[in-house]
Amino acid sequence: MTGPRILSLGAGVQSSTLLLLSAERRIPRYDVAVFADTGWEPQAVYEHLDRIEREVAQPAGIPIKRVSVGNIRDDALDPAHRFASMPLFVRKPDGRRGMARRQCTAEYKIRPIREAVRLFLGATLKANGRPGRPPRGSAVTQSIGISRDEIMRAKDSQVSYSRHDFPLLDLTGAADGRPGWKRSDCVRYLRTRGFGKTPKSACVGCPFRNNAGWRRLRDTDPRGWADAVAFDRAIRHGSVRANTTGASLRGEFYLHSSCVPLDEAPIDRVTRHEWASRQTDLFDAIADTEAGVDDEIGCSPFTCRTDLYEEIS
Ligand code: SF4
Question: What pTM, to 2 d.p., does this model score?
Answer without folding.
Answer: 0.87
